[in-house]
Design the sequence.
């Protein structure tokens, strides 16, 4: 299975985790939507952890000759990992990711693909959305915080119905639960993102309270993405800033104490404020040192230094003023994965 | 060398739809007259005007034009780095896309390169820019860059530079470092020359850089200094950082312990505490240094590899008996 001869093929990846609608109900819904696309399609279900019931239903579908691939993982690895593994089995040029529970109506899948247009990734958001006030508050807080932290704004990152071009997943490495932030990471990578309203499925109701643990994790996720997006390439800028600020604070306090000692004769040695000053100074130095280590990691790993993404390289081999020397260049293919060479329209 | 080396002229463009055409014409006129093989690498840095379109038209008419199109705006350094990546010449010449540099100067650069230099940088000795917002900050920055990096160049901000391709393609360029390319390249110890170039006032569009970059320049300077001096011996560097901490810590600890010796009150707690804090910081810093050494050993880029980029060797091809 290669991507080359599957230009029209659409691969649908469904990571199956904890929350799921029975396959017997889910599959017909998605199938009805996919048939409206009028292009060949395949479905890849990735079972994240042992799920005997779902697995047997899916295997049954395979034996019936449905265009289904089932991948089973032996333990829970996280939805993003499941997605990446699903992608390894996908042959289509367009990838659709769908949740394993009915979040949006099946017939909305067509809209998703249409919204892809000349964008690289189309992200669905549920509209109109039936939700409790608590849910709305939660969603606002999450997206608001994310907007402040990353300066990128999205409507509904909780909606996992997305369509994307192959090259997006070829370039972006996801793990753990990062699939939620895929649009964000894609945009940072210079891909064009479009958003599309999808009708929420009646099955998508989740009114119960989350456990505190979920909130903590959500918060840590944002923190994680913040680092990924903003500072992984410039650790010294980030740590250096904090380090120098802390250090300066400590020095200022120390100078003040010394000043008081000299002019007001308040004894230096007996003051707990001295401890605070020295702690700040030391902390500043250590944070700065962490930045140095980060910079060292970036520098010694060659891949880390490239911070641009090439859309395409344009050169016409058959153009008029072809000098003998440039002929050998023109036919050459750059084996850079981010670029495509448009070459030889030779007359 | 019998054959003249191939030249790549690298020009980044960001919203320069009016300049790209004249720039192309000027390069072709200037370099074409030299009767040497050359190519042009135009980098469109995510412009939102017709720059990319014009560039594509040029590529259609001339096989020597290669247009590298970015997905979005990444800044001048990234554009230069991409131009260097996609250039195939043995000598790479970089210049600004705003027509302030004069392609007619390329000839002098090539002459200087032929003398055996690895990097030739331009110096805009009659600079046609605003005094307060451009020239004075630039003077200060150049002085500072020379002081900190040890690479003394009169005009780092001049984009017109020539590099030996094999050298510059292997130097990591990142962040906002285009003005530091020679400084960054100094880890390979290149032979650097400087020549005067003409500088024209801006004809089209407007300047994209202002005073706000000073802060970034300072930070980048710090990074460069770190990378060029620290990366090859992390343990040594961290040890140097430890030294003042150990000194302060020992003195404070000794003073704290001695303070109460004569009798009343016992030793001074804040002073002793300070001593302990500084000393423990010195220990963790040493640990960081060891970690740094480990990272350095496992990494795949090491400054000593750069020695091969600039070395020259001569031998007679014979062995003695």
Sequence:
């Amino acid at each position: 299975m290669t991507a080359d001869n599957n230009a029209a093929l659409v691969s649908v990846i469904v990571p199956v985790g904890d929350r799921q609608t029975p396959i017997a109900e889910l599959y017909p819904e998605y199938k009805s939507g996919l048939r409206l696309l009028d292009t060949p399609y395949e479905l890849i279900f990735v079972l994240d952890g042992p799920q005997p019931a779902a697995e047997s239903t899916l295997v049954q579908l395979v034996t019936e000759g449905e265009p289904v691939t089932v991948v089973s993982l032996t333990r829970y690895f996280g939805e993003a990992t499941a997605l990446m593994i699903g992608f390894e089995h996908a042959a289509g040029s367009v990838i659709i990711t769908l949740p394993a529970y009915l979040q949006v109506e099946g017939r909305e899948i067509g809209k998703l693909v249409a919204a892809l247009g000349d964008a690289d990734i189309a992200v669905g958001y549920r509209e109109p959305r039936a939700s409790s006030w608590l849910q709305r508050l939660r969603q606002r807080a999450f997206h608001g915080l994310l907007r402040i932290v990353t300066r990128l704004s999205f409507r509904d990152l909780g909606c996992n119905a997305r369509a994307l071009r192959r090259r997006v997943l070829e370039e972006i490495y996801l793990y753990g639960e990062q699939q939620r932030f895929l649009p964000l990471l894609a945009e940072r990578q210079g891909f064009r993102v479009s958003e599309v309203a999808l009708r929420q499925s009646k099955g998508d109701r989740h009114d119960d309270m989350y456990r505190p643990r979920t909130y903590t994790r959500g918060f840590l996720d944002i923190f994680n993405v913040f680092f990924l997006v903003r500072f992984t390439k410039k650790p010294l800028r980030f740590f250096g800033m904090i380090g120098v600020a802390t250090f300066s604070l400590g020095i200022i306090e120390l100078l003040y104490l010394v000043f008081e000692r000299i002019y007001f004769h308040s004894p230096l040695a007996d003051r707990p404020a001295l401890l605070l000053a020295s702690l700040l100074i030391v902390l500043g130095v250590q944070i700065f040192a962490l930045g140095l280590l980060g910079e060292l990691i970036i520098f010694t790993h060659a891949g880390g230094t490239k911070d641009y993404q090439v859309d395409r390289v344009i050169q016409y081999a058959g153009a008029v003023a072809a000098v003998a020397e440039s002929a050998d260049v023109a036919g050459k293919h750059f084996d850079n994965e981010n670029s495509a060479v448009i070459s030889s329209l030779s007359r | 060398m019998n054959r003249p080396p191939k030249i790549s002229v690298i020009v980044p463009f960001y919203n320069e739809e009016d300049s790209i055409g004249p720039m192309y014409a000027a390069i072709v006129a200037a370099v074409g007259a030299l009767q040497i093989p050359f190519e042009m690498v135009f980098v469109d840095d995510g412009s939102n005007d017709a720059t990319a379109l014009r560039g594509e038209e040029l590529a259609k008419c001339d096989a020597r034009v290669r247009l590298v199109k970015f997905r979005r705006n990444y800044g001048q350094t990234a554009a230069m780095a991409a131009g260097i990546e996609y250039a195939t010449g043995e000598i790479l010449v970089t210049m600004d896309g705003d027509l302030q540099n004069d392609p007619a100067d390329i000839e002098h650069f090539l002459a200087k390169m032929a003398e055996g230099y690895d990097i030739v940088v331009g110096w805009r000795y009659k600079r046609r820019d605003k005094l307060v917002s451009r020239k004075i900050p630039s003077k200060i920055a150049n002085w500072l860059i020379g002081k900190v990096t040890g690479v003394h160049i009169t005009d780092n901000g001049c984009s017109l530079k020539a590099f030996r391709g094999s050298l510059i393609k292997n130097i990591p360029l990142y962040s906002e470092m285009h003005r530091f390319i020679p400084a960054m390249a100094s880890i390979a110890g290149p032979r650097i020359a400087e020549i005067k170039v003409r500088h024209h006032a801006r004809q089209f569009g407007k300047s994209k850089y202002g005073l706000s970059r000073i802060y970034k320049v300072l930070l980048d300077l710090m990074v460069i200094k770190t990378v060029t001096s620290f990366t090859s011996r992390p343990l040594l560097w961290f040890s140097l950082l430890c030294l003042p901490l150990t000194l302060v810590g020992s003195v404070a600890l000794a003073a704290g312990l001695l303070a109460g010796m004569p009798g009343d009150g016992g030793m001074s707690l804040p002073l002793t505490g300070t001593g302990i804090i500084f000393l423990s910081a010195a220990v963790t810093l040493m640990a960081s240094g060891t970690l740094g050494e480990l990272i350095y050993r496992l990494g795949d880029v090491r400054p000593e590899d750069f020695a091969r980029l600039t070395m020259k060797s001569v031998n007679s091809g014979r062995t003695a008996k």
